[in-house]
Amino acid sequence: MLAPFSLQILPGGQLVPAGSEVPQNVATAFAENSAAGLLALTLADAAETGDAVVHFWREYAREYLTQLCQSPPFDPAGGWETVPVPAEIDDWRARAPLGRGLEYLTVDLLAALWRAMDQRAAVEVAGEAHSIEGWLKRRNPLWRMVGRVTFHLAENPRREDFPFAFLATYTHRLSSGGGLRYLPLGQALSEFAGQKNTRALQSLLHPVRQAAESCELARQLLESRRIFHALAWTPREAHGFIQAIPAFEEAGLIVKVPDWWRGRRPSRPRVRVTVDAVGRTSVGIDSMMGFRVDLALGNERLSREEWQEALAAGESLVRLKGQWIEVDRDRLAAVLERWEKAERAAAHGFSFLEGMRLLAGWPTTAGGAVEGEAEWTNYQAGGRLRELLETLRDPSRAVQAVGGLELRADLRPYQRQGVNWLWLLHQLGMGGCLADDMGLGKTLQVIALLLAIRQSGPAKPALIVVPASLLGNWRAELERFAPTLRVSYAHPSQENGEPVTPADAVLTTYGMLGRRPEISGAEWGLVVIDEAQAIKNAGARQTRAVKALRSERRLALTGTPVENSAGDLWSLFDFLNPGLLGSASDFQTMIRTARERSEGEGFAALRRAVSPFILRRLKTDPTVAPDLPDKTEVRAACPLTKSQASLYRKSVRQLAQDLRDPDRSGIARSGLVLSYLMRFKQICNHPALWSGTGAFRAEESGKFGRLRTIADQVAARGEKMLVFTQFREMTGPLADDLREAFGRAGLVLHGGTPVGKRQRLVERFQAPTGAPFFVISLKAGGTGLNLTAASHVVHFDRWWNPAVEDQATDRAFRLGQKRNVMVHKFVCPGTIEEKIDRLIGEKRALADQLLSGGAEKALTEMSDAELMDFVALDPAAAQS
């Protein structure tokens, strides 16, 4: 089932619609480019559609239109006057809600999209009779701009009693030099009245009258006709103007204030809450935290005398320390009293996680919050805590883990930093999520951590919980990189006859947790969960079993960004650091409030709360990319389902029976063997492929499950993938299943695809916002196609001829490829697929010779005993 209308950021920075219910005009605009799509979101018929991500981008586009309205009108003679990127661009980045591709949202990308909207607007306005007003009229009513009236508020330093000045102006015409000429609004009254141009005057005053309908200040200015004159204002009158700015802009008026007011408001003194560890103790999960409270203006502390000076002024705008500041005495006093009371109540300290919530601006239990408190409060970390958080957010600062590890691998620089980060968390007793991109070596970094833990001294064993399909991969890497670790396997397919403990590490699967009391009842030093998205559903039995495990420390691994869903994120951190994000109901209430009220600060607080405990590196990161090979090949184990194993076992017995037929010899025997080899391949893919029923249910194939896991991660990254299969009948079912993972349709190419259509398919796939996946039959697309838009290649079934597979891989890994390519080769363990894969992997040169004519030819020449041994099913290894 597709999700509601949302937007995803692709690795190249493009925005694409995802999910269902996308307005047609929005879909058409985004198909053209991101700028066109963003501007389309502001149209009236798209004004209230989509989720929180869509709302964020709609507000960003509206901010551009707001700034455009405050810019001079378009001058055809002088050209388009560029709307500058807002100074608060970094604040927009922090306020972004959770969504796919959020890791690509940078300040540079926001600025680039802003400039792209500006270029798009210039083109569209130029095509509409050179009129910004006419162009804006087509957009949401918020942007109706009948007149170009500007309200100016300026400082008047020569008048101590009236330190501010107000003036309303209008854009009169172009000057003889081609520039814009602004005149006082009062002059318009004289000119239009003299010309008896009532229509022009009514049009000019239209936004002023709109503002007067909802704003008392605008009504008074208009009714008293003071709006047509320059006015000297007191601080109280200037503050009333500041309070009315939203109503002015809603009506379409342009507002100009002193340019040194950040965010078009004067600075505010804030209650500063500084959090740090109590006493001289080190900072860790068990540390007692405390805080101190004072008043600050920016980074400068305000003394009690300065605060009293501000109070004594009796105004909401006060000049202090050489600048105008905004003061809400009642609100600020209430916030200060609340935190001073909380400081006294917390004299004996509070938990580390409560301190983290406090720093993030996340709702806490420290007293009753004051309405609007966030606007008047600033949270910061003290010296030791600040240093720790900076290290957690920047692993290059972490101290090296125990030296001299017995690791039989050379860690890349970013991997060494990852191990150091994991070691720091381990020493602090904190839970963390290693969310590195697929293929960056999360397993290897955890193995190095296990070696560091053992080398540091006696410790309770670690429990590693993985999907059944990855159990073999973990065993192979442990044996390869850390043969000195004592490892036990709590799963029937890998049982080595040893007790679960004592050991340095115990490997098991999610499915075993509820069946093995020696696991659920033990005390573990560390619990590691791989593919951590397995616990995203907080109410699932599997999730409850994982969270019930007793451990001193917890670690989660995932290649899928943990920023996709708020609920998923809560469940993950309820495992890693229970209590950090509060209870499930409180968390959902906070997120719902943030979405309903469009409170970007709510999402920023969430990100600040969890960011120290998440380490995510992308293959595209400048510090990572130079260390990566251009092509990484991985073997993806796909255990058979029960129905697959049953069919495979029956086919092996049937082959043994048919081989005993004395009439089966020579060519007839070769034909028999070839037919069974094809049957085994088909069963490993999906039972329906051999039976011909057409019922390709994903749950009946281990390969479909593994493909979906990989596709979910690729889709979350906004990357593209190629899927090769030698069976034309598989292409359609694979494309249908992948469409659900990616949220939109992909492409299919097989022998029946007309030659003239193939190049058009390639062009559609290669386009930045084109199809996200391409399913190709190996013979039809193994050569001749240039598909460098893909960064992942999946061999769903094995051709058994290395050269043929390499040719298919080279559709993506070829000249023009600017990304690292990840190649996933699917293998069903315990079957003939695994034995052929092992032969290719261990003896590549021999395999090239043996299989150059195809594995089928080589296998037909085996004796009956050799053949049966080769195709026999290993029941323990074959099923999850």
Give keywords.
35 helices, 880 residues, seven-stranded parallel sheet, alpha/beta
Q: Any idea what the radius of gyration is?
A: 33 Å
Question: What is the beta-strand fraction?
Answer: 15-25%
Question: What is the terminal separation in angstroms?
Answer: 26 Å
What is the number of E strands?
26
- Averaging pLDDT over every residue, what do you get? 82
Number of alpha- plus pi-helical segments:
35
Strand ordering within the main sheet: 16-17-15-18-19-14-20
Characterize the structure shown.
The strands form 6 sheets. The protein has a 7-stranded parallel sheet with strand order 16-17-15-18-19-14-20. The chain has 880 residues and is α/β, with parallel strands linked by helices. Helices cover 44% and strands 15% of the residues.
Tell me briefly what this model is.
This protein is of the alpha/beta class.
Please write out the topology.
Layout lengths: L5 E4 L5 E4 L5 H9 L1 H7 L11 H18 L19 H7 L11 H20 L5 H6 L11 E7 L8 E11 L5 E5 H10 L3 H17 L1 H8 L7 E3 L1 H16 L3 E3 L12 E9 L11 E9 L2 E3 L1 H9 L4 E4 L2 E4 L2 H17 L6 H9 L16 E5 L1 H11 L19 H16 L3 E3 L7 H15 L5 E5 L4 H11 L5 E4 L14 E5 L7 H4 L2 E7 L11 H7 L2 E8 L8 H11 L7 H13 L3 H11 L3 E2 L15 E7 L4 H18 L7 H19 L1 H5 L10 H16 L3 E5 L2 H15 L4 E3 L5 H12 L6 E5 H4 L10 E4 L6 H8 L11 E7 L4 H11 L1 H7 L4 H6 L3 H8 L3 H4 L2
Parallel strand pairs: 3-7, 8-13, 14-19, 14-20, 15-17, 15-18, 16-17, 18-19, 21-26, 22-24, 22-25, 23-24, 25-26
Antiparallel strand pairs: 1-2, 3-4, 4-5, 4-6, 8-9, 9-10, 11-12
